[in-house]
Amino acid sequence: MKMTIKEIAKLAGVSQATVSKIINNYDDVGMKTKERVLALMDEHGYRPSYAAQSLVKKVTKVIGVIYAGKINANFNHPFFVEVVSTFKKTMGAEGYDLLFFSNEKFHKADENYLQRCQHYNVDGCIIIGGEHVEPSVDDLVQSDIPCIGVDIQLDGPHSGYIMTDNNQVSALAVEHFYLSGQREIAFIGGAESSLISNEREKGFRERAKAYGLQTPDDWIVYGDFFEDSGYKQMNELLKKERTPRAIFAISDLMAIGAMRAIKDQGLDIREFAIIGCDDITAARHVEPPLTTIRQDKDKIGRMAAYILKDLIQGNIERTSLKVEPDLIVRESTGHEIGSV
Amino acid sequence: MKMTIKEIAKLAGVSQATVSKIINNYDDVGMKTKERVLALMDEHGYRPSYAAQSLVKKVTKVIGVIYAGKINANFNHPFFVEVVSTFKKTMGAEGYDLLFFSNEKFHKADENYLQRCQHYNVDGCIIIGGEHVEPSVDDLVQSDIPCIGVDIQLDGPHSGYIMTDNNQVSALAVEHFYLSGQREIAFIGGAESSLISNEREKGFRERAKAYGLQTPDDWIVYGDFFEDSGYKQMNELLKKERTPRAIFAISDLMAIGAMRAIKDQGLDIREFAIIGCDDITAARHVEPPLTTIRQDKDKIGRMAAYILKDLIQGNIERTSLKVEPDLIVRESTGHEIGSV
DNA sequence: CTGAAAGCGCTTACAG
DNA sequence: CTGAAAGCGCTTACAG
Q1: Does A28 lie at the interface with B, CB-CB under 8 angstroms?
Q2: What's the structural domain count of chain B?
Q3: In the structure, how many helices (H) and strands (E) does chain B have?
Q4: By residue range, what is the domain housing residue A31?
Q5: What tens digit of pLDDT does each residue of B260-307 get?
């Protein structure tokens, strides 16, 4: 059933070498021979074996996909799934397939990303960054395998990384509050160990200062990006002596949790101004619809693919890119200027 | 840097064959030799080449993932992403990695799932079913490569499939309407070519009949599973001479669209009873929270993995499984009995 | 324009 | 308990 090059060669009455040259588009093969062989390959549905090819060539046309870190970098994470989806499409158009490493056996001490990449001989890989990244990621990044990081800073000899300009994320939120007449803002961050959360907090503080806005220290609290933590932190904020009216939560889920907390306290949600982050589907559907900062998932996925391709082809070496976020204004900040 | 078995053998002062036996856990190797070689492999981070191994062995420990059909079966589809996520975890625990085929080059006439599976020599594959499935899927399913289908009926010699009991999906919805005192129900289906939509419609009609409920023919309409189509179809329903008060939409997004249509018409949403399907995140957050029929994504993904494993090991041949859905009662059907 | 031969990194009877 | 040798399905100088 499954044919080999040898059988095709015999059928065509030529040597293996000739068939191989046709497969690999060498131009020193006679037209008639070529046509005959091509027809035969087509007829028998012949496809050269990946294993044999990759054993002798260096190229595999396979990209490894790694979700690094124990938290927030999962296959079904709503942000990353969009990024990876676009990445997959873009790489797919170039003929690459994606190999997703499972790390369920990772407690086994000898598991190691570099080894696995070498085992499969992938042409390159994409690393999705979560929190508490395994040290073995670094061995991979320092190797000569091209790597592109998303939301993780990679500094290997053939690596790059890409992420949203998180400073700008906060800038947009703070600016929008400022233009809405808010003068005091609370901040609900993610885990304190999170690179993303830290960048956004830094941007938040700087920008608030630049606009002369107040950000009392006890109005800066931390959740874990999920809804319940937003609910809990908002309740804490509402217990303070002075309570905030403007809240920037660095994930939509936390913002939604915060809205729920406000309602559950019997307060009027219309008297609060809330901004989230991500623009998940639910953001449009909560009451009131949530103003949010959207990351350009599409661009991130697409650029990650382009950069990785350039890295693989040796067109570039180290590189990094920040992608601009967008402000999406909805009613949770009380008005509808430029609503999308 | 990247070692071969030959180098390890030389370092250890034994033959390749001996090293190979150690890698493959043959038990006829001396303890001391084994330990020495193992230590060496560890020290040098040696990992046998996938290509070389798979060339000579039949097993690859790689599973192909195929999103078949042009519609509704995407990498980032909210339902399938959960299913595949659990599938990945379960297979991962067994040491399998997942290879996602890209089908961006698919217009190229010679693309063919069977060929690609053979090319990579995958141990088996999972096929996610959408609409308008490519005929080439059938060649794969009829081959001797084990296949497990999700939301697609597969009848190959070594294949199985799994999906929610769609008849039961409708049964739960109809029953809930019946118990809420509704006596006339409208139905918003998906594309008419959709297997899932057809099963649900069939179940809906049968069960409504069994309960003696009215389902006027012009109250049975079709969208495309997305929000806007629900909005549009609901508007059509509201133009009828007699308009429905109870609506079963076979996706949450369409249900949410329908709710929006009702509100936009200036009608009181509280006078309608609406049931969706899927239990997406937004279902909890719309006003009023949406009653829905939840599919057990986790179980589907897990069972798909178990079945595929059994298929690969030859423990079973053809098989199929229906998974029970759950009714999640929220306020869109007017009361809160047994709310989750 | 075509083919013989070596080699890619492994595994597996087989012989000792 | 260990190793020499053939073979898995390809590609690539090289010679003709």
Answers
A1: no
A2: 3
A3: 13, 12
A4: 5-48
A5: 999 999 999 999 999 999 998 889 989 899 999 999 999 999 999 999
